[in-house]
Amino acid sequence: MAVFDHPQCTLKMHYDERGCAFMALGYGKADARSAVDDCNTSSRKPAVWITTSGTALANGFPAIVEADMESVPMILLTADRPPELRDSDANQTIRQDHIFGRTVRWFVDLPAPSDDIDPAMVLTTVDHAVLQAKTGPVHINCMFREPLAPIEEPYSPMVSERFSAWERSKTPFTTYCEPSSVHQSAVDMLHQLFSASERPMVVLGRMGGKNDEVSEAVHQICRQYGAVSVVDVGSSHRLGIADKNAQHTVFGCDLMIGTNPPKGLAPDVVIQFGATPVSKRLNQFVAGASIQTYCIVDDRNRRIDPSHKASQRIMSKPEQVLSAWAKTSLTHIPDRPVHADWVQKWQAVQKGYISALRHLFSQDILTEQAVAHAVSRWLTNDYTIALGSSNPIRHMDSFAVHNGSDVYSLSNRGASGIDGTLASGVGFAMGHKKRPVIFLGDLALLHDLNSLPLCVAAKAVVVVINNDGGGIFSHLPVRAFEKSFETLFGTPHGLGFEHAAQMFGTVYSRPTSVSELNDALAMAHEQEHAFLIEVQTDRESNRQEAERIKAMVEKTISTIFSPPHTH
Question: Tens digit of pLDDT for each residue in 476-528?
C-alpha cells in the first residue's frame, strides 16, 4: 500500500508470486544505462519483489536461484509475522529467516515497527541492501505485528535533523560511490596476449552492455590484432552486432565447427568476455585446442571455467574492459604482423555455413529451425527477445540471420531452467522499454501459463514450438532406451494452446508454412495486441532434420577446404 501511494514508485501487479519474481529477474537483466550516475557503476537496476509471508515467498526461489547464478540485481521485500510467533503454530508463519540460504548476497530481519527503532536504522539498512543487490539478490524480511492494514497508531521516535532533511530530499540516506574505471594493468595484459598471438580469438559469452558500444570495441580489437570474434546468442550481441564487424564476426559455431572441424581454425589465445556460451561444440573445441592462454573477463564472483582451462581471470565488467581495451589498442601497435590467413580461414568457413543456410531455408517448409530463422529475420529495434532453454535458444544461436538490428536477448542460462520464461521476457522488455518477443517450447509455456496476462498487458509476441514434450532429449543417447524414453523424457501432454490464448485474451495463430508464419509475424507487428503463435512439429522429424542439416553443413564446409582433384 505504501508503494501504491508513492508518486515515485512504479507498481506492477501479478497474482502469481512465482511469475512476479521472474518478472523482477527479467527487469534486473536489462541494461538500464539511462539512469546511471557518477556514483553508480552498475548498468543494471534491481526491481523489488514484494510478497506476503508463508509459502508465497517460497514460490520465488527458482527466480532467485537464477539471479544468484547470473549475478542479477534483485531485492526481495517479504512480509513476515513478528518474532514471538515463530515456531508457535501461528497461521501462515514459517521460518523465513535465511530461507534462501546462500543464494542471496545478504539477508536482514527488519524488526517490527516500534518507537524503540531509530528510523535511520531502516534507511541505512535499505541503502546497504541496494549496494549489495548490485551483484545478486538481497533479502529484506519485514516483520509486522499487524499483518494486513496500515493501522494508524501514535508514533514518536527520536527524529534527528538529518532524518528530517532526508524526508525533504529525493536522495538516499547513505550514498555509496564505487570506482568505475578498469585497471590499466588488465588492459595491458590483454594487449600483450594478443600481440604475441598468431591466432587470437575473442568469445562473447553471456554478458551485458550496449550493442553499439560492444560492437565498436570488438571491431576495433579484431581489426587491430587480426582476431576473430565468436558471438554467442546469450551475449545479446548475436542479434545486435553491427554489419561493419561482419568481416571478423563468427556465429553458428555449434554447427559450423561440427564434429570434425577444418584444420587451422584452432586459436592459440582466447579472451572470453562473459559467462559460458550456449554452444557445446564451441566449448569442447576451444577446451581441446592447444591454447597458450585462456583468459575470462567477467565481474561475477564465481568460477566461470567448466572445462578447467582458464589461465587468467579479470574480475571486471566485460563491456567496460572491452571499451578500455579498444581505446588503448588505438595507440598500442601489435609487436608482430597481423596474420591475415587466420581470419580468412574463418571467413571461408562462415561463407560456407551461410551458403548452406540459404539453401536450407529457400523452401516454404516450416521446421523448428526455420521458425528461429524466420523470427530472427523479422526482429527489429522495437523488440527484445527472450529465449527459452533447451531447443529454442540453440536453434536461435545456430540459425538466426545477422540483419543488423539492435535486438537485446534474454536467456535464463545461469541454471538453465525452463520455468518463468514468459515473465522474465516481459520484465526484460520493461527494463529496455521495448515490446517483448518470447520464443520458447511447449513445456516452458505450460510451466509459465499463469504469466500470459503479463504478456497481454505488455502486448508480447509469443512464439511457441509445440512438439508435444521435451524435444531436446531426442538428440541425446538416452533416446535409445525406447521402452522408458517416451514416458520419462518425452513427457507427451497432448495439449494445444488455442484455448489458453482465448482464455487469456491473446490473438492466436497456428501457421503451417514459413509464408504463413511470416504473415502472422507481420500482423503482430502491425497490431497493438498480444499474439500467441503456435507452431506444431514432430520430435522425431525434428531430430532427423537436425541430422540432415548437420550433414549438409559439414559437406558444404569440407568442399571449401578439400584440395581440387587432379587427373
Answer: 888 888 888 888 888 899 999 999 999 999 999 999 999 999 999 999 999 98
Cα first-last separation, the chain: 85
Contacting residues for 271 by C-beta, under 8 A, at least 6 apart = 190, 193, 194, 200, 201, 202, 203, 295, 297
Helix, strand, coil percent values for the chain (each to nearest 5):
45, 15, 40
Task: Give the range of the structural domain holding residue 314, as residue numbers without chain letter.
Answer: 184-354
Strand order in the sheet with 507-509: 408-410, 383-387, 435-441, 461-466, 531-536, 507-509
Other Cβ atoms less than 10 A from the Cβ of 533: the count is: 25
Whether residues 453 and 513 share a domain: the answer is: yes
- Summarised one tens digit per residue, pLDDT across range 262-276 is 778 889 999 999 999
CB distance 236 to 260 below 8 Å: no
Cα pseudo-dihedral 276, 281, 284, 289, rounded to 10: -110
CB 429 within 8 A of CB 460: yes
Indicate whether 455 belongs to any domain: yes
| Nearest Cα to Cα of residue 102 among 277, 297, 274, 301 | 301
Residue 134, domain member (yes or no): yes
Q: Does residue 177 fall inside a structural domain? A: no
pLDDT at 25: 97
C-alpha cell at 392: 529454442
| 260 within a domain of the structure (yes/no) | yes
Cβ–Cβ < 8 Å for 421, 440: yes
Listing DSSP states for 207-230 in one string gives --S-HHHHHHHHHHHHHHHT-EEE
C-alpha–C-alpha distance, residues 34 and 17, integer Å: 29
Q: Are residues 57 and 106 in the same domain?
A: yes
Which set of grid coordinates corresponds to residue 154? 501514535
d(CA 440, CA 303) in angstroms, rounded, equals 29
Confidence band (pLDDT; 50, 70, 90) for 161?
confident
What is the reported pTM? Answer: 0.90
Which residue, of 107, 135, 168, is where some domain finishes? 168
Task: Return the half-sphere exposure (C-beta side, CA atoms, 13 A cut-off) of residue 329.
Answer: 26
Note whether 308 and 380 are same-domain residues.
no
Distance CA 276, CA 205 (A): 6
pLDDT band at 245 (very low <50, low <70, confident <90, very high): low
